[in-house]
Amino acid sequence: MQTWASVDVPRLPGGGPPLRLYDTATARVRPTAPGATASMYVCGITPYDATHLGHAATYLAFDLVNRVWRDLGHDVHYVQNVTDIDDPLLERAARDQDDWVVLGMRETALFREDMEALRVLPPRHFIGAVEAMGEIAELVGKLLAGGAAYRIDDPEFPDVYFDCAATGHFGYESNYDAQTMIQLSRERGGDPDRPGKRHPADALLWRMARDGEPSWESDLGAGRPGWHVECAAIALNRLGTQIDLNGGGSDLIFPHHEFGAAHAEAFTGMHPFARHYTHTGMIGLDGEKMSKSKGNLVFVSKLRAERVDPDAIRLALLAGHYRTDRAWTDALLTEARGRRARWREAVALAAAPAADDLVARLRTHLADDLDSPAALAAVDGWAAQALERRGGDANAPALVRDAVDALLGVRLGS
Length: 414
Known about the structure:
single chain, elongated, four-stranded antiparallel β-sheet, five-stranded parallel β-sheet, alpha/beta
């Protein structure tokens, strides 16, 4: 699947401290410790609508990870999927009397445009579930052969399920109890009440073909994959048996990331699948979480159509810490516009206060669990001094412009 165009990232002098990130599995902020290549898998969209501000906030957070790792000298191997076949996509297509393939392609194209406008560095691999169908079916077959999966006793639809007891580690990523897991499974696309499952939380791996539904031929029989195994197969085949970071929104902690990790670990025997499981908070509007069911989604494409500067959207979302549930407001966007204008005015000066300390503080704040609010405040302080004093170091404006671009992804030039 085609990704989007990248941008040049300025190289900054010196270096910063190692990146520390909150890890959901251990419930603490821990240092990341990638080798020469840092591996990151971030779960992508299901393209029945794209891109709302919750999506944007998530991908901006992991864009910061990408930029910090690059600044530290790592080659970042970033992989992202697109769930271009799943029940929500089929349901939306049926509701709108649309072709599910066309719907998926249209919304994925819009997502790419939004990510490019927001200057999110693209993944090295951007993989749709449909194009990965063969490798997904192969992984399901191997899990079945290895005893980590089973066919349900249903003569009409002998679907394949994952046995959540297969690894001996199930539950370590979310740390949820069984009752919570079952409830979240029920709320998030699972089928805990289906008769014949070994455990109510066991996740679907391969859904045998039903009339009127798309399906693919495989050694398992005609059908289509469950949601979680898609990401496990795509990540394993491009990043290997253990990765540095598995990321997404906090609504993916369970069941998606718990099962994705379990599928990978059952196949490889390697534990944990990811050294960090990192999750972003939810974006709300008028005191409520944005969701399709509430009909209160704010879309990046709509804001762009209203001629809202994507850099202002980026700054508005970075004004809150990535792990916090937070609200989107007009005031937030107004503040972001003013902030960008002040920064641009400051870096346009012929000279300004020395910026070496600012660059060091930017690196320190972002290395501290992506403290973007503190990073923005540091640039605010430098800009205020620059506009008040209007003189100093002739090299400082260009250094700040490059640092804000490289680390925060915001353009301050023309």
